[in-house]
Specification:
By secondary structure, the protein is of the alpha+beta class. It has one domain. It has 10 helices and 10 strands. Strands 1-2-3-4-5-9-8-7-6-10 form a 10-stranded mixed sheet, with helices on both faces. Helix 3 packs across helix 9.
Length: about 325
């Protein structure tokens, strides 16, 4: 019997004093905001935007639109493959906590939200370019994303996960810029109007191997739908406040990272195709280095290849064949 994977969970507060750890994945979007001369103002402004958006979506018993505050923690998941204690930084997500200021009560929100992974960098920035280098058209390997998916599913099913988190993760991402989304009649009181894509994206396929399905919703006063990846039933497994915590957090980050889509000056209509070339958008004045992120993705993919894929090659093959879910 092969030794089971061991997961260790660390938590780091994401506030205006946050500084990325040495072993943090630097293409993580929140780590990108926390570097450079504007780091503190970046963080302060982003957190204020999140608070404002949350309160705007909770008008009940909130006459001053300032009742609630959002606290964020970076959840780092280290993976020990061989029991030596030398762990690989496998996953980073965000945990939302909702502060009810009048009572001082803290409500546990959703874990997931943002999602970062060295192995995903490896798949998209190393495996895919190499696989398509000499091909006439773009294609993906048959086993693309399978290892990453098995690691994620094993983590979510682990005792480490259940000991720390009450609900299943929800990951909230941008829509794909090469897909058309059409609004349907379904409207959720918090998530808003539902949209459906005209085709399946590579991201959808990749996250499906992680055991996640996806639905697209555009919340009230938003300008573009968000992609919600989840397990179970997103409409019934979470409270309104939990869902609003994720919307406020991730819509704010998307306004910073993808202003062409999420800070556009006109809202998506019944048929919508996002564009990163859209000139009709506003900037948040929060500094985000998109070029650095793309460059680091390749470097970090190579790091995963050396320190995880190749270093644990035999062990990964054995585990994947026998023990993975």
């Amino acid at each position: 019997m092969t030794r089971a994977l061991t997961f260790k969970i660390r938590s780091t507060r994401f506030d205006e004093d946050y500084t990325p750890a040495d072993n943090s994945r630097l293409t993580t979007n929140f780590a990108n905001l926390a570097r450079g001369p504007n780091r503190k103002q970046n963080l302060r402004s982003a957190l204020q935007m999140i608070d404002n958006r949350f309160n705007a979506l909770v008008p009940w018993d909130n006459p001053g639109f300032d009742r609630y505050g959002i606290e964020l923690d970076i959840i780092s998941v280290d993976l020990d493959m061989d029991g030596t204690g030398q762990a690989f930084p496998a996953i980073e997500m965000l945990q939302v906590t909702i502060l009810d200021r009048p009572t001082g009560t803290r409500l546990e929100g959703i874990v997931g939200n943002n999602f970062s992974s060295y192995v995903r960098d490896y798949d998209f920035s190393v495996v895919l370019p190499a696989y398509n280098e000499d091909r006439a058209g773009f294609s993906i390997p048959d086993d693309f994303g399978e290892l990453h998916g098995k690691v994620f599913k094993t983590f979510v099913s682990s005792s480490a996960y259940s000991a720390h988190f009450r609900t299943q993760p929800v990951i909230c991402l941008s829509v794909s810029h090469n897909t058309i989304y059409r609004r349907i009649a379904n409207r959720h009181p918090v998530l808003g109007y539902e949209y459906r894509p005209d085709k399946t994206s590579l991201t959808e396929q990749y996250f499906a191997k992680m055991g996640l399905q996806v639905r697209y919703f555009m919340p009230s006063d938003s300008v573009a739908p968000l992609a919600f990846y989840f397990r179970g039933d997103i409409l019934n497994d979470y409270t309104n406040l939990e869902l609003i915590g994720t919307i406020a957090t991730m819509e704010t980050f998307q306004k910073i990272y993808r202003p062409e889509i999420y800070n556009a000056n006109s809202a998506a209509g019944e048929a919508y195709q996002p564009s990163l070339e859209n000139p009709d958008h506003s900037l948040t004045r929060i500094v985000y280095d998109r070029e650095e992120r793309n460059r680091l993705a390749v470097e970090q993919g190579r790091f995963a290849e050396k320190h995880f894929i190749k270093h644990h090659h035999a062990r990964l093959l054995e585990w994947s064949a026998k023990d993975a879910a």
